């Protein structure tokens, strides 16, 4: 067992973690602990852009961005936090550029921007170009740029270390326990501030755009230490995943003029969102797709639809919509322009679908994509652990693992990358400031006791269960019953199944009893996290008897602001019982209205 | 269809030397090699160890030698290999730790040696630094690198001497050398004008052929060589 001591430790090396580390390390002794090499983090897969009202391509205002995000959140986002994020966005994007991020450019040499779902000109209601992009690999460029800047600034990295426990002493964060993957040795990281930036848990669902690594580790270890989670019932399904595989096809495809087409050849979004059509927010489009497929309008009656970005299709619908270029001429696209603007999408379609998107439409279906809920924080990234927003000293969270809440019931595209950089930065600043004015909490007498107990159980499990069968069953039932459309009955059956699976989980034998890169042992531990999270998600979703954003119930189809304009807080009690309490949504300027696109 | 997958195995806690295990399984032509490895690990042998994360060719975790050529296991589909006999081995030139997992430290050390970060100490403008579409296009290709190491570990020069900085590090340097906003090109060119730098490249093109991001690596290396010789960045 090895011990380390730092002022600030950051868990996770995606966009939020690296941004936090960059800022914390300016003043405090900081280390980043990550189960992957930093450049393997899931931020790298983000494609279309980062939202900021730069106004480089047309008139735009951060206040418009704020309203769009509030509306996109189905009024569940906290408006003070959303205002903060959208205001900070502009400077944050310039800052990324100053770090060297290779954004695509306008003819004037400024950062290029494209339209994205739910982002509008608040006067006309038409889509606005707000997504700042680097081709269709914006996340890749953010991740690379931030990692490079961390190297330049000599940030300490512990790569391929799996954090497995959060140490809490005197009601404050005291550090973490991690397993060095190469040796299985336990390490104790004693710290004044702990920033969790571990991402989401899309691997709970069957069809997902999320990486294998997206197993909700940060949420699971925090939940086990008595910290509540916020709004866990809200999980986003992105409309356009590659059929069967779930790999993401960016909304930028529709930003550039691509349209969704059903089996009858109709551009069906005209019926669901007459004004912005294929650029409505994600929950609206995913639900429309689900309804089309349910009505037998899938392609050849199957459970997929087409995303069509062939130049003739783009040009036809752009003409019908009256879409114009900046100089006022009609908007048109050639095959070459599509390939230049969306090179990775073209590559994915060719590799995984055998389809050339310039010549053929792409088969797509909604895919589990983004965790709106998570560790409750305020806008400085401080974890707030009850209805009164009481701060837990020394604990911070940023990025997808956190719930500020800026995404509420449904996140707008491009706001996740924005969330990473804005709240990554502010959590890093605040964590360093706290650490410099605080003493270390004492470590517990036996800091690795809980970890050893947990892993001894995994090593010594008896039985014939198989990890792929237990995880497969969880993913299927969650997809079917706690996915895009939910009912009380379906969720009850999912809850029962998940609880049975948690029992079966204890009987997955560990074949690999070695210490060097025991990936089987880690995979089993990760599945334990997913199962616990699946249960919490289902309990929170069952309780919320309304439809709002990504949480859509057939048995309660309307939004209910009288009873449900509030955040869910869920505690997992030591006996396993999940306790729910609620806290109000922060409303500043925008009273809830009916949501029409 | 039935597929035979022969996998390189080495468990340092048990084996004195490596060996191969052969597995037979049913697979679809559109299955990824990664899917087959997951299946083998899940149903045949839980001890099989390999790295993976995003599973669609972006994170760069699962570079492997498949039927004698470097691929990302998540980007190599069965149908693209034109055979139902698959051999999977670790990438070459780096120490094998266990099964398909190699020691990446040397690879990242080379990457870090070329100043792979943006340098410009002039005062920052209040908004973005301007860059024309053409200036941005100049280094677009090398921004795509995901550090999977497929290129470096396919290079016979690197196999012969792991002191060679390798194609991936040169690609990283290229991305900054040709960025009109960056101010450290001369320093990077000096680093690469070394006996283990760009001149080790003998234009064998293995790197370019296997790059899962389709970067024109040999060309990028050639451009760096030319910049050293001419002192010009055009």
In short:
Chain A is α/β, with parallel strands linked by helices. Chain A has helices at residues 15-24, 62-72, 79-98, 138-152, 217-223, 252-255, 269-272, 282-294, 311-321, 335-341, 343-353, 415-436, 449-459, 467-481, 488-505, 519-543, 561-564, and strands at residues 2-11, 30-34, 50-51, 113-120, 127-132, 156-159, 161-169, 172-180, 186-196, 229-230, 235-242, 259-261, 305-308, 362-371, 375-376, 382-384, 391-397, 402-403, 566-572, 578-584. The interface between A and B is large, with 61 and 62 residues.
Explained architecture:
The complex is a heterodimer of chains A (597) and B (234). Chain A is 35% helix and 20% strand. With 597 residues, chain A is an alpha/beta fold. In chain A, strands 1, 2, 6, 7, 8, 9, 16 and 17 form an eight-stranded mixed beta sheet that branches. In chain A, strands 11-14-13-12 form a four-stranded antiparallel beta sheet, sandwiched between helices. Chain A is globular and about 70 Å long. The model of chain A has no long low-confidence stretch (mean pLDDT 97). With 234 residues, chain B is of the alpha+beta class. Chain B is 32% helix and 15% strand. In chain B, helix 3 (105-113) runs parallel beside helix 6 (167-177), helix 6 runs antiparallel to helix 7 and helix 6 crosses helix 9. Chain B starts with a strand and ends with a helix.
Number of DSSP strand runs of chain A: 20
Total helices of chain B: the number is 9
Would you identify the CATH architecture of the largest domain in chain B? Orthogonal Bundle
β-strand number of chain B: 7
Rg from Cα of chain B: 20 Å
Span of the ends, CA to CA of chain B: 51 Å
Keywords:
heterodimer, A: Flavocytochrome C3, Chain A, domain 1, Methane Monooxygenase Hydroxylase, Chain G, domain 1, 4-stranded antiparallel β-sheet, globular, B: 234 residues, alpha+beta, Ubiquitin-like (UB roll), Fumarate Reductase Iron-sulfur Protein, Chain B, domain 2, 2 domains, 5-stranded mixed β-sheet, two-stranded antiparallel sheet
């Amino acid at each position: 067992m090895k011990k380390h001591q730092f002022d600030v430790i950051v868990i996770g090396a995606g966009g939020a973690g690296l941004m936090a580390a960059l800022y914390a390390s300016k003043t405090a002794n900081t280390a980043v602990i990550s189960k992957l090499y930093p450049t393997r983090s899931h931020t790298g897969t983000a494609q279309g852009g980062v939202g900021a009202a730069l106004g480089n391509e047309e008139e735009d205002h951060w206040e418009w961005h704020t309203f769009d995000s509030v509306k996109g959140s189905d009024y569940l986002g906290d408006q003070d936090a959303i205002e903060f994020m959208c205001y900070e966005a502009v400077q944050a994007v310039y800052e990324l550029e100053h770090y060297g991020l290779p954004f695509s450019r306008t003819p004037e040499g400024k950062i290029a921007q494209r339209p994205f779902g739910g982002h509008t000109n608040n006067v006309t209601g038409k889509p606005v170009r707000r997504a700042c992009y680097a081709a269709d690999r914006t996340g890749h460029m953010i991740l690379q740029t931030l990692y490079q800047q961390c190297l330049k600034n000599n940030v300490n990295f512990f790569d391929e270390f799996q954090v497995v426990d959060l140490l809490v002493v005197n009601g404050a964060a005291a550090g973490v326990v991690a397993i060095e993957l190469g040796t299985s040795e336990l390490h104790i990281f004693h710290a004044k501030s702990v920033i969790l930036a571990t991402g989401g848990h899309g691997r709970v669902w069957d069809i997902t755009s999320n990486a294998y690594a997206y197993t909700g580790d940060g949420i699971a270890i925090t939940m086990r230490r008595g910290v509540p989670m916020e709004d866990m019932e809200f999980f986003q399904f992105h409309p356009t995943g590659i059929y069967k595989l779930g790999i993401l096809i960016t909304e930028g495809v529709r930003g550039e003029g691509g349209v969704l087409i059903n089996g009858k050849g109709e551009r069906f979004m005209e019926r669901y969102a007459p004004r912005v059509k294929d650029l409505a927010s994600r929950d609206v489009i995913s639900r429309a797709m689900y309804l089309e497929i349910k009505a037998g309008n899938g392609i050849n009656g199957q459970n997929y639809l087409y995303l069509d970005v062939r130049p003739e299709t783009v040009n036809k619908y752009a003409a019908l919509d009256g879409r114009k270029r900046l100089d006022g001429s009609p908007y048109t696209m050639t095959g070459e322009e599509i390939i230049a603007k969306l090179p990775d999408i073209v590559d994915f379609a060719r590799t995984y679908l055998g389809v050339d998107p310039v010549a053929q439409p792409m088969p797509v279906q909604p895919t589990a994509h983004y965790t709106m809920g998570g560790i409750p924080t305020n806008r400085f990234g401080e974890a707030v652990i009850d209805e009164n927003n009481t701060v837990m000293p020394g604990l911070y969270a940023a990025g997808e693992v956190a719930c500020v809440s800026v995404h509420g019931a449904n996140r707008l595209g491009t706001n996740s990358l924005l969330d990473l950089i804005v709240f990554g930065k502010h959590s890093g600043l605040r964590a360093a400031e706290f650490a410099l004015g605080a003493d270390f909490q004492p470590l517990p007498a036996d800091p690795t006791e809980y970890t050893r107990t947990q892993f001894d159980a995994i090593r010594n499990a008896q039985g014939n269960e198989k990890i792929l069968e237990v995880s497969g069953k969880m993913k299927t039932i969650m997809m079917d019953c706690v996915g895009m459309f939910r009912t009380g009955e379906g969720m009850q059956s999912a809850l029962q199944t998940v609880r049975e699976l948690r029992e079966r989980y204890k009987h997955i034998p560990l074949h690999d009893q070695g210490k060097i890169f025991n990936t089987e042992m880690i995979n089993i531990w990760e599945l334990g996290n997913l199962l616990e999270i699946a249960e919490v998600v289902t309990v929170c979703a069952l309780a919320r008897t309304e439809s709002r954003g990504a949480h859509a119930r057939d048995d309660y189809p309307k939004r209910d602001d009288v009873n449900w304009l509030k955040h869910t807080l869920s505690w997992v009690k030591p006996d396993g019982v999940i306790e729910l309490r609620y806290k109000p949504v922060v409303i500043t300027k925008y009273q809830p209205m009916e949501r029409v696109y | 269809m039935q597929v035979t997958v022969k996998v390189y195995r080495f468990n340092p806690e048990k084996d004195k030397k490596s060996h191969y295990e052969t597995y037979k399984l049913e697979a679809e032509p559109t299955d990824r090699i990664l899917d087959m490895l997951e299946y083998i690990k899940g149903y045949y042998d839980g001890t099989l160890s390999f790295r993976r994360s995003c599973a669609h060719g972006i994170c760069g975790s699962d570079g492997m030698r498949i039927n004698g050529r470097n691929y990302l296991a998540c980007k190599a589909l069965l149908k693209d290999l034109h055979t139902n006999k698959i051999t999977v081995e670790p990438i070459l030139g780096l120490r094998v730790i266990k099964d398909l997992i190699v020691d990446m430290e040397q690879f990242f050390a080379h990457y870090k040696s070329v100043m792979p970060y943006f340098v410009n100490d002039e005062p920052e403008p209040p908004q973005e630094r301007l860059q024309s579409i053409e200036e941005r296009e100049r280094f677009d290709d090398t921004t795509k690198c995901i550090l999977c190491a497929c290129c470096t570990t396919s290079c016979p020069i690197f196999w012969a001497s792991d002191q060679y900085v390798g194609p991936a590090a040169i690609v990283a340097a290229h991305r900054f050398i040709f960025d009109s906003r960056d101010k450290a090109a001369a320093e990077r060119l000096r680093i690469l004008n070394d006996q283990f730098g760009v001149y080790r490249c003998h234009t064998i093109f293995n790197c370019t052929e296997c790059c899962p991001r389709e970067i024109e690596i040999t060309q990028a290396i050639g451009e760096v060589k030319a910049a050293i010789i001419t002192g010009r960045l055009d």
